[in-house]
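subagent[fold] <- orchestrator: predict structure for attached chain, return tokens only, no commentary.
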Amino acid sequence: MRLTFKLILMIGIYFLCVRLLYADSISIQMKEDVRLNGTAICLGDIAVVQGEDTVLVRALKEIPIAQVPQLETGKRSISTSEVLMHMRKIGIEESRIKFSGPSVATVYPELQTIPAQHVFDIVTGFIYENMPWDPNDVIMHPQRMPDDMAVVCGDVSYEVIPLSKNQYIGQSRYTVIIYVDGQIQKSVNIFLDIVVFKEILVASKKIERGEMILPSNVMRLRKELRANTQDAISDPARVLGMIAARSIPANGILKSSYIEMPVIVQRKDMVRVYLKSGGLLIQSVGLARESGVIGDYIKVQNIDSQKIFFAQVTGIREVTVDANAGEAL
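subagent[fold] -> orchestrator:
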């Protein structure tokens, strides 16, 4: 099989050489401006090739000359001298070639248009996928739109990069990098305003600092959020029973920084002390030496031994101590 293939190849080369040897003159009429899609520039792309030997003409049209530019602004100029160089490589004498038309053919990549609206939709899709809001609570407006973009033909993909500190609310800026066949073609900035309306908790009347949050002093309203209020609380379970850490005016938004846990153990309170050791639960009484909210570790004094140990606040006037502090009881 290999000998047969080599024999056929040698015979083909022989007949091509014979065709070149006895070929009449070849007419090459150069084109001026050419737009191509693909990677290789062949002679037939930049010139009209003619001759009596149609088989030879077809083969000459397929000769690769250069590479198609892969950027929108790229271009490749090919002169008749460069064409002659390729002709010599395959054994065609210069005297057999007759050129006509311009002396230089300029090749540009074929372009495709990407609408600016499509890029804007790519950005909004990215925001919807990553934002913390319900899509029904969000409206997005473009602040200014870029022009439609031209890139070389091929498979287009996009990368969205947030550039604003507040990525998903208010005035925001995103950069979109456009790739064609995996190569970066260009980047474009998208400026838009993200408006968020959400049902949140507000004070139904003024809440003083230290006052407990109750159903009677809060209500839910649908309001527009801003960058400085995007942490507004919407779930009543997060605030009811908590204490106002600052004064909150009527209709004021409730934020996480405005509330704190209530102090359920006061300094000098008598507290129940629980010690869990294995399957046993030992209970005693102690004196709180510090105030604390649930989860805090405070100092507690054993009434009998006067020893001081740390215990965790677990309920109203209740603390729990681990087994390692058991000797303090």
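orchestrator: received. Logging for downstream: The chain has a mean pLDDT of 88. The CA atoms of residues 243 and 262 lie 5 Å apart.
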